[in-house]
Amino acid sequence: MTSQPVLTFNDGKTMPQMGFGLWQVPSQETARLVREAAGVGYRLFDGAALYGNEEGLGEGVRSCGLPRDEVFVTTKIWNDRHGFDETLRAAEESFGRLGLDRIDLLLIHWPAPARNRYVEAWKALVRLREEGRVTSIGVSNFLPEHLDRIVGETGEVPALNQIELHPELPQAELRRKHAEMGIVTQSWTPLGQSRTFDAEPVRRAAERTGASPAQVILAWHLALGCSAIPRSTKKTRLAENLAAAEMRLLPEEVTAIEGLETGHRTGPDPKSFS
């Protein structure tokens, strides 16, 4: 089985560096795919209320044959549930769908700045962590100004910020901000919809290592110190993705892949998406 590198949060808890992202995984297939992913070595499963498959995630975790303490479960609060009481209710609903008595990491899915309620949502997450029902808390798609505001108003620093990050959008400035604040960076859409698979730096690294372009890019994320949560619905691809954790890129390869930056986003802009 592939070894599992881990990252340590600012609260002292740890998380596997590579995970299985459940965005766009059909609800009827989720439990089976979680079991298959656990079977090939995954221990981190990234879900969200929006994905519509929390029930399958919970079922997969409960039936995968692993002790609960060996599986790390993330879910997220959607934009229309911001606000202190609303967020607490949304978390209760997620607990009910998951069928788990603990969530390892609970995130605010987007800052949704036009709604202007993410600080109250953050206070609710702090409460849930204090009550012990949620082990660690974080955010997703937050920009520096959003991070500064929640920390300035609560004194509580997120353990993690999950952001769109891939070779065309390496997010160097935001990663530096995270490093200064002690926040783990987690990459969603880490393969960038395959847009850089044929790029010269990726091809050269693949030729040197005998790896696939996808493995090279995932190894690049890990070399940057990020967590990555690729998605696949094929068992062979799940195993291939996880094997990237065993790869080691040369420093010049890491730099060259970061040089593919174009600023292209596959998803919404956090400044305006609410």
Characterise this structure:
This protein is an alpha/beta fold. The protein has ten helices and ten strands. The chain is 41% helix and 15% strand. It has an eight-stranded parallel sheet with strand order 3-4-5-6-7-8-9-10. A two-stranded antiparallel sheet has the order 1-2. The longest helix has 15 residues, at 84-98. The radius of gyration is 18 Å and the shape is globular. The N and C termini lie far apart (41 Å). The model has no long low-confidence stretch (mean pLDDT 97). One of its GO terms (molecular function) is oxidoreductase activity, acting on the CH-OH group of donors, NAD or NADP as acceptor. It catalyses: hydroxyacetone + NADP(+) = methylglyoxal + NADPH + H(+). Belongs to the aldo/keto reductase family.
